[in-house]
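Weekly structure sync, notes
Attendees: PL, DS, HV (note-taker this week)

Item 1: Acyl-CoA reductase
DS walked through the input record. Source organism listed as Formosa undariae. Sequence as pasted into the shared doc:
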Amino acid sequence: MNLEQRINAFSKLGDFLSQFSNEKIQKKEDIPFNDLFFDGFKHQLKIAQENNRWFNTDNLSFSLNGWSKSLTKSNINTWLEKYSFNTNSPKKVAIIMAGNIPLVGFHDFISVLISGHDVVVKQSSNDKHLLPFLAKYLEHVEPEFKSKITFVEGKLEDFEAVIATGSDNTARYFEYYFKNKPSIIRKNRNSVAVLTGNETTEELEGLADDIFRYYGLGCRNVSKLYVPENYDFQDFFQAMYKWKEVINDHKYANNYDYNKAVYLMSEFDILENGFLMIKEDSSFSSPIATIFYEYYNDVNELKTDLNSKKEDIQCIVSKDFMSYEIVFGNTQHPNLWDYADNVDTVAFLLKI
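Item 1 (cont.): predicted structure, written out as tokens:
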């Protein structure tokens, strides 16, 4: 199977996913194997929701919409144009996936296959229904994938490289266990936003998307704000009301109530609006329904501080602050070439 065959297969998968990229699922004509797979994937989406209540209809359709837009021939070719693909024999690459947001390990999955390798997938129990079904679709679109995709439940065996995603604690285990294998080990990361007080309503409403999408469970979700001294949070809270309906989700509401009770009993100073709390805190990782914030006095000192903590930060949302900043509202719209932790997965895979 050559590179062009692999690109064609993934672009057809993107076409298939486009049917599920809105809350109203709509069957399209001219999608290969649609009669065989359309109703089945609808069922898998229902099972995924039942298995993980964070995976509501809105978040599932948002994720699938992102992938359907990414997996076009044009996008895939743009992604791959800088690499030199060789004819080395395929290696078996294991992927240990997280399960915090829908299809969170999908980029690693397609990176391994697009590089010509075989993939061995160990999924999280929180997100185990969608990817095996999409893998079956790929195998029908391009039958040569059949021998290249394996899912395992137990111990990983018989592999030559690994990509593993987990917490800081599991990363230590991964680093020890896989010390003799080529590897990418991903740890905890969070995203931050730098505000000046001059943001437009549109920018702050974009920040609301960066905060609330996927209930804040992703590493690309903003969990920490940097604000100037004497910052007035009124405009910030006003913009957050775009997501006020989030409190109607009982899991989110339970987290909000619990964390609010903890803060009040501990006599922490918090500001809140009925569905979001903000708390002054130097940490990056904030609980669900909470955003931490920290004041800054000097922009250059803040830049130096954030550069020194790059290993802990996934995205920096700001305007005209950092060369590698992300525009307000765009953290959950990564391109295929926007690699997690800024580690080029395809370059790694082409060297093993």
